[in-house]
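Students often ask why inverse folding is considered easier than folding. One informal answer: many sequences map to the same fold, so there is more than one right answer. In these notes we will look at a single instance of the problem. The structure comes first.
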């Protein structure tokens, strides 16, 4: 069987998601670092977003589609359960993270620090302060969601968890996110537990490109 090629730079949360799926399932893969809108990405994704995947003559874009393909094609423990209800709950949390959490937590909050747009090259405090309540709300939602079992879907580690952990990895690196995580005791315990997984440790990204 041909080797799976994941294309995209490793700092991307979505690239990390598909890499973690490969790690969880024991799928050999190659990571080809590439930026959004670069030639190898544009060749597969119509909007130039990462990650994209090539597996023999199969080419896919969008992390959820890639993760689903990997889970169905390769053996190993399922990250999307076969049970319809659990599978739907995984889909629900992936959608919530992608549509409601990624924007405020990563695009506005984290990138506001990583690529500062304020005076003298410093973070724009007004912009960051404006998004902090939304970040705190997302953390509160997740804290409540993992309180019962330490997972987002029943007591299984699934794509739902894989999709959220890379977001939390970055959020907790900055002061307001770190403070909110410290107050969210259930979520902090959840993060510490799952961050010890080999799939998480083996995909820790280098610092973002300057």
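Output (designed amino acids):
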């Amino acid at each position: 069987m041909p080797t799976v090629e994941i294309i995209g730079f490793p700092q991307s949360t979505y690239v990390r998601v598909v890499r973690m799926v490969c790690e969880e399932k024991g799928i050999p893969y190659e990571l080809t670092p590439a930026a959004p809108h670069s030639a190898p990405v544009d060749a597969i994704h119509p909007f130039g977003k990462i990650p994209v995947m090539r597996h023999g003559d199969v080419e896919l874009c969008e992390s959820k589609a890639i993760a689903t393909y990997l889970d169905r094609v390769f053996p190993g423990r399922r990250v999307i359960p076969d049970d319809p209800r659990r599978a739907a709950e995984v889909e629900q949390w992936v959608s919530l993270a992608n549509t409601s959490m990624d924007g405020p937590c990563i695009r506005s909050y984290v990138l506001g620090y990583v690529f500062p747009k304020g005076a003298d090259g410093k973070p724009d405090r007004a912009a960051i302060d404006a998004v902090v309540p939304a970040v705190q709300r997302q953390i509160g939602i997740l804290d409540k969601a993992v309180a019962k079992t330490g997972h987002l879907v029943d007591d299984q580690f699934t794509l739902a968890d894989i999709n959220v952990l890379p977001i939390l990895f970055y959020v907790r690196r900055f002061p307001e996110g770190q403070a909110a995580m410290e107050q969210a005791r259930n979520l902090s315990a959840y993060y510490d537990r799952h961050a010890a997984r080999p799939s998480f440790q083996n995909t820790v990204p280098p610092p973002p490109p300057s």
